[in-house]
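Entry type: protein chain
Record version: 2
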Amino acid sequence: MNTPLLQIHLTTNFTPNSLASRNPLIFFVHQCPPNPIIPKYTYSSPRYNRKTLIKCAENSDSNPPKWVRLLPNNIISAEKILRSIAGATSSPICQFISSPTTFLHSVDPRIKLAWLLILVVIPARSHINMRFGLITFLAVLSVWILPRQVWVDQLGRTALLSGILFLMLGLGADSVPMVVQSRTPPPSMMGLPNIPPSFDGYSYLLFKLGPLQLTRKGLSVASTTACLTFTIFQSASLCLTTTTPEQLAFALQWFMKPLAYVGAPVAEVILTLLLSLRFINLVFDEVRIVALGIVSRRIHWQQLATMETVEVFFTYIRRIFKNIFNHAEQITQAMTVRGFRGDSSSHKIYFSSSSSAPIPNMVSLMTLVGLVSAAALSEYMLV
């Protein structure tokens, strides 16, 4: 005699709930009353009175605190990074701008190199007031010389970098107190009067905010670093945007010519400088153009997983290096066709004709002498 197998049919109706949709780990269990018509081991619930056995309240995580809701979302995203790269200025820090012709275009490149050297030395030797005056001078000169779309981008980025360095070094130089233990007991224990202060009104601590403090040492270090960073970047920008690579190579060769008598590879240095100034422009263009190509495809970044976004960026970097290597190969072929065989001293380099004028050269030299004199006097006159 064959015993019929028991059939168990489990049918459950789940109604949508706002709490369950927000938290998938919460389940609602309903009790079904027994039906005498249906066999004992067969259950079906097409119609029954729902009775909740488990009741849950909303978790506190569903309503974040007020300060969390005030924080901005999506500050840094892949699309914003690529758009900022693609929307960068087409005139980077090393590209020569031929028009409009300004005062610095007519200055001799050797005087410009002397200016670059002096602007590196002055921030480290001058007073803090002189440093901020030098920053103001370079900012005004950049606004006067460079086109608006160039100086707005360059001054903004350089000022942001210098400001970050100033805050980090100014507030962090003396924020951690030194653990110093005196070798001698205090004067009160030895029966001696306390040592009076040397200066009235002098305070080493200038500003204090919790554990962070701004002291005279921190202000000196921060101002020197921020001014040096700003002057190096902005003076290099002014020199490279108003001077052709051939003129810079000619000026550097003129200064390094005495070193050739002691065996220095002057010809190799000049050729390397000339190729570097030509090649950096191609790197800036490739970074911007490839980023523009990715942005123009309108990728839905919200639908991509994290690893897919990382893969897009790796593809972006790989494409940049591939294009750069292609440009390097083309430059090598062009130099080989023009007769270069590896010996820089025997290869003739044609520099562009000098476009300097006597009046701008005299004005630049007089301004340079005045700046050096003011920096030397600031160490003795300014307090």
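Comment: The CA atoms of residues 172 and 178 lie 13 Å apart.
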